[in-house]
């Protein structure tokens, strides 16, 4: 306890300084502490007469709360000293903040939350009182006199806090060592508003400062890492102080420390002349060290790509990565020390599927993209978080594509990012990309699919509009111009504007400042084609309710590209359809058979055609699918179904289009089709026509199912992705052979569940889920649960957890739900995934719904209303509800618990989805079953608006 005593002496010294009760004489062990004490000694006189009042914890409730910090004071430098105690799960800390005075004030206002602030001093000033204001998460320090403009002050604070039962701030994480004993580590997660839970600070992204960090850790197998390299280690017996180099100027949300006994491996990142080479080191629990090789190899490769792409040297001298056993999101881009959940970093070919491997690469590529875009240049405020997240989302696909060109990442953007967000963004509950946010709950909630996927999609559209070279040049200029500073959306667009010769800003404002997107309606005109645009809403009834609240009247400046049957495959024409123009005409010969707009679906809009044009496209697809490339085929399928779902096109069109799928063998279009076939199954379930639907859908997948089979190719990434997509659809749709195969594999393995007997990693989720689905014995579930409990590999554990949710017995699912709320069974980080898995099973859906409502008080107490994953749960659980009864249940629930926190939007979305589902059944189920029974009428406009 050598250092602890030492530490206590410092605490004591500070306390003495404040309360001036005695003279301080302490033997100190190191220069830093000595210096601190000298400071304190000097201040004793000042504080002699001072009455620092004890901290008041004030609750504050106002309707119009101003959450923003005043700008009178700007922090410049933090000296931080943290001692996380891994045994007790608590930490103590002290800090000195150097602050510039910009406006005269007698108050120092900064953030602090869930911290016990034990003392506050201001060098050469008198503190009247300090108050912790809970609602705004502020520490308000009042001084006797105004601070002088242009001067600089030093603020010292002593604090301590708790690290257990949380995944944000400075928190503890645990794991079992190979020998089976529990190990504790501590780590941090500060974005967006949690740095204030680890140290009082000016916790806004524009309040950049430098940080000199010292971390105390147990001597021996434990060590500490932080954003910067270790500069000095101070051995103090049982404890050691790790002193890190001072950081560059950066935002508080990027600060990170980890105290652990992790092992590491490293590699060199070759800067190829743009800056210096540097080391990349990957940390994991010691027995999993063999799982970091892939991340290191890919991490270095993608970093090298970014250095070339950005053409800006990597701003720090090292880049570490660490896999943390308990982690709230998937990964976090702390500057110089990216943290991940284990499934997002660790790769082991005996556990990880093709999709796991791709996800690891994608997450790394995403976080490393942030090291420049986000960390070096940061948004001023969370309103513009899309700049960070949308850009990184887009870059992650480019980054992976650069390293693995055969993974088809550019088409995968379309199916994984673009298609899903276009569903979300066709609702009235959506929101613009740039959105005002203030409170912690609002800030958490804005990390959503609009910021990420729509943000990424409009950046992709912009890149294709201006050309990739010019776009890259603009990115470099932007990074150089604003390095170490903060920006708003307009700053980025200005740089793009400068490298082009048209008004990029105005065009982009139509996409970033109003929600939603258009559908272009294409018809034949006298001398070619006519195009009009209209906002696309998935529920016809929404058109009447939609507020007219946009400056651009919900019209967009649309980058249009098109191609026609008569042209060479790669000939594309383009123009911009401006938001303030009603109709555009494309002059073409009358004998054009088909025209296809939005080539490769690089634009963020849908295209509807008059019936004869859809007919021609379908004929072409069936006659010779390769006339359209993979992205165009995926696009045609997606648009046709989405338009039919929205009652803007007869369902006959997408259904007839599916006839071509017999010839389709590429992943992206099949992914679209397979997802749609599963979604239609869920929509039609418990409705007439379900049985004939299943027959039709099974026939569709049968031939491709036979072809992909059950053996996994060693090295064909896209074929592996295709296989899993097809097997999952085939099993879901109940293709008898698929279910038999899954059950056989499940039973063989469960009888003797050795590692060697496991199915191939790619097949595991399907085998576990559908094997469990078909099992009627409770003991199978128990066995699977036992395997789940014993499993230590994080990605395997998730696969088993998914399998457990496949059982068809409501009682077992209920039991599972209850068990899952025990943290020693399901880690908090995985809880929402587990609940969602159960809710996605039609048998589990009502079980979860009852449980969620019944347990709301306990759940909201456990996770807190600002938790964005908790907030999102409501929309996920209720996404298949399609009746008035369910809608009323939902509304009753809202009335009973009106406080929704970060779930506010999710609640609106849930209501809107249910209304849409009800409407969808009315509009479409009849048409679908008519078509299936062969009695459909010819293509008509009856469903058009
Ligand atoms: N900056 C985020 C992490 C984050 C998310 C912090 C939400 C606070 C709230 C990070 O860059 C990120 O986007 N992580 C993603 C993974 C990534 C591959 C999209 C995540 O955690 O899901
Ligand atoms: Zn991100």
Note down, in words, how this protein is organized.
InterPro entries: Aminopeptidase_N-like_N, Aminopeptidase_N-like_N_sf, ERAP1-like_C_dom, M1_APN-typ, Peptidase_M1, Peptidase_M1_aminopeptidases, Peptidase_M1_dom, Peptidase_M4/M1_CTD_sf. Belongs to the peptidase M1 family. With 945 residues, this protein is α+β, with helices and mostly antiparallel strands. Among the domains are: 51-261, tricorn interacting facor f3 domain (Immunoglobulin-like, Sandwich), CATH 2.60.40; 373-516, Neutral Protease, domain 2; 518-635, Immunoglobulin-like (Sandwich), CATH 2.60.40.1910; 736-841. 43% of the residues lie in helices and 19% in strands. Helix 6 packs antiparallel against helix 7 (409-424). It is globular.
Which keywords apply here?
7-stranded mixed sheet; disordered C terminus; 5-stranded mixed sheet; binds ligand BES; binds zinc ion; Neutral Protease, domain 2; Immunoglobulin-like; 945 residues; 29 strands; alpha+beta
**Tertiary shape:** globular
> What strand line-up does the widest sheet have?
5-8-3-2-11-14-13
CATH class of the domain at 51-261: Mainly Beta
Tally of separate helices: 30
**Can you tell me the CATH superfamily of the domain at 51-261?**
tricorn interacting facor f3 domain
CATH architecture of the domain at 51-261: Sandwich
Helix content: 40-55%
Query: Might you state the CATH topology name of the domain at 51-261?
Result: Immunoglobulin-like
Q: What is the average of the pLDDT values?
A: 92
Q: pLDDT under 50 segments (min length 5)?
A: 1-34, 40-51, 937-945
Straight-line distance between termini: 76 Å
Radius of gyration: 29 Å
Number of E strands: 29
**Oligomeric description of these chains:** single chain
Largest sheet: 7 strands, mixed
Small molecules (ligands, ions, cofactors) in the structure: ligand BES, zinc ion
Note the beta-strand portion. Answer: 15-25%
Counting helices, strands and paired strands, the structural category is alpha+beta
């Amino acid at each position: 306890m050598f250092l602890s005593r030492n530490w206590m002496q410092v605490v004591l010294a500070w306390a003495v300084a404040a309360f001036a009760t005695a003279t301080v004489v302490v033997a100190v062990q190191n220069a830093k502490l000595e210096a601190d004490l000298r400071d304190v000694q000097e201040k004793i006189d000042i504080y002699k007469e001072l009455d620092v009042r004890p901290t008041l914890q004030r609750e504050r409730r106002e309707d119009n709360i101003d959450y923003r910090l005043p700008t009178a004071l700007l922090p410049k430098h933090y000296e931080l000293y943290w001692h996380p105690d891994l045994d007790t799960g608590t930490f103590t800390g002290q800090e000195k903040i150097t602050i510039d005075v910009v406006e005269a004030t007698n108050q120092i206002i900064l953030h602090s939350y869930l911290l016990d602030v034990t003392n506050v001093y201001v060098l050469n000033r008198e503190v009247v009182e300090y108050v912790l204001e809970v609602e705004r998460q502020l520490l308000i320090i009042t001084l006797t006199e105004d601070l002088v403009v242009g001067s600089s002050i030093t603020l010292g604070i002593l604090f301590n806090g708790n690290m257990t039962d949380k995944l944000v701030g400075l928190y503890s994480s645990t794991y079992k060592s190979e020998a089976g004993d529990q190990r504790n580590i501590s780590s941090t997660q500060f974005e967006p508003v949690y740095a204030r839970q680890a140290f009082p600070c000016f916790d806004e992204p524009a309040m950049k400062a430098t940080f000199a960090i010292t971390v105390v850790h147990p001597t021996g197998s434990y060590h500490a890492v932080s954003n910067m390299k270790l500069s000095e280690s101070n051995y103090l017996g049982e404890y050691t102080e790790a002193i890190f180099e001072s950081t560059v100027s950066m935002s508080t949300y990027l600060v990170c420390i980890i105290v652990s006994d992790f092992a590491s491996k490293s590699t060199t990142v070759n800067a190829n002349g743009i800056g210096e080479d540097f080391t990349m080191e990957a940390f994991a629990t010691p027995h999993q060290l063999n799982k970091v090789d892939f991340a290191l190899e890919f991490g270095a490769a993608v970093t090298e790509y970014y250095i070339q792409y950005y053409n800006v040297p990597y701003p720090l001298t090292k880049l570490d990565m660490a896999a943390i056993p308990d982690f709230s999101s998937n990964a976090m881009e702390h500057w110089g020390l990216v943290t991940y959940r284990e499934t997002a970093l660790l790769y082991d070919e005996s556990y990880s599927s093709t999709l796991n491997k791709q996800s690891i690469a994608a997450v790394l590529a995403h976080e490393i993209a942030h090291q420049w875009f986000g960390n070096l240049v940061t948004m001023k405020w969370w309103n513009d978080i899309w700049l960070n997240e949308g850009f990184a989302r887009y870059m992650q696909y480019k980054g992976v594509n650069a390293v693995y060109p055969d993974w088809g990442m550019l088409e995968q953007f379309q199916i994984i990012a673009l298609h899903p967000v276009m569903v979300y963004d066709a609702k009235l509950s959506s929101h613009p990309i740039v959105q005002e946010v203030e409170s912690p709950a609002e800030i958490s909630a804005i990390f959503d699919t609009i910021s990420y996927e729509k943000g990424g999609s409009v950046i992709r559209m912009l890149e294709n509009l201006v050309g990739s070279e010019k776009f890259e040049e603009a990115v470099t200029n932007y990074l150089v111009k604003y390095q170490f500073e903060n920006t708003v959306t307009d700053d980025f667009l200005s740089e793009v504007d400068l490298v082009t010769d048209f008004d990029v800003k105005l065009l982009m404002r139509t996409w970033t400042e109003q929600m939603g997107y258009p559908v272009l309606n294409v018809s034949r005109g006298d001398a070619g084609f006519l195009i009009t645009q209209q906002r696309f809403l998935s529920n016809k009834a929404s058109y009447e309710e939609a507020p007219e609240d946009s400056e651009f009247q919900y019209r967009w400046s649309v980058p249009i590209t098109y191609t026609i049957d008569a042209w060479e495959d790669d000939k594309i024409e383009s123009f911009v359809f401006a938001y303030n123009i009603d109709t555009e005409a494309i002059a073409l010969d009358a004998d054009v058979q088909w025209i296809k707009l939005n080539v490769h679906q690089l634009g963020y809009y849908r295209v509807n055609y008059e019936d004869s044009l859809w007919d021609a496209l379908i004929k072409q697809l069936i006659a010779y699918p390769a006339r359209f490339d993979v992205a165009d085929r995926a696009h045609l399928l997606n648009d046709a179904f989405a338009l039919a779902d929205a009652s803007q096109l007869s369902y006959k069109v997408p259904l007839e289009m599916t006839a071509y799928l017999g010839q389709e063998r590429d992943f992206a279009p099949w992914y679209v089709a397979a997802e749609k076939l599963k979604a239609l199954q869920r929509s039609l379930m418990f409705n007439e026509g379900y049985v004939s639907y299943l027959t039709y859908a099974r026939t569709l997948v049968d031939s491709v199912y036979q072809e992909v089979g059950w053996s996994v190719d060693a090295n064909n990434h896209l074929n592996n992705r295709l296989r899993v997509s097809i097997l999952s659809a085939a099993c879901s749709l109940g293709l008898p052979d698929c279910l038999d195969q899954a059950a056989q594999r499940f039973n063989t393995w469960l009888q003797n569940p050795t590692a060697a007997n496991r199915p191939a990693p790619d097949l595991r989720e399907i085998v576990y889920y559908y094997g469990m689905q078909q099992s009627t014995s409770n003991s199978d579930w128990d066995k699977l649960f036992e395997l789940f409990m014993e499993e230590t590999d994080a990605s395997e554990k998730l696969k088993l957890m998914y399998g457990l949710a496949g059982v068809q017995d409501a009682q077992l699912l209920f039991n599972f739900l209850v068990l899952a709320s025990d943290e020693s069974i399901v880690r908090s980080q995985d809880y929402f995934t587990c609940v969602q898995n159960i809710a996605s099973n039609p048998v589990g859906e009502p079980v979860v719904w009852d449980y969620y409502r019944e347990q709301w008080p306990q759940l909201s107490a456990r996770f807190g209303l600002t938790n964005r994953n908790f907030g999102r749960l409501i929309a996920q659980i209720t996404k298949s509800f399609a009746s008035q009864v369910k809608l009323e249940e939902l509304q009753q629930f809202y009335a009973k618990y009106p406080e929704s926190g970060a779930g506010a939007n999710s609640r609106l979305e849930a209501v809107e989805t249910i209304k849409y589902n009800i409407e969808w059944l009315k509009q479409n189920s009849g048409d679908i079953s008519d078509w299936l029974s062969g009695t459909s009428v010819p293509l008509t406009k009856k469903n058009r608006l």
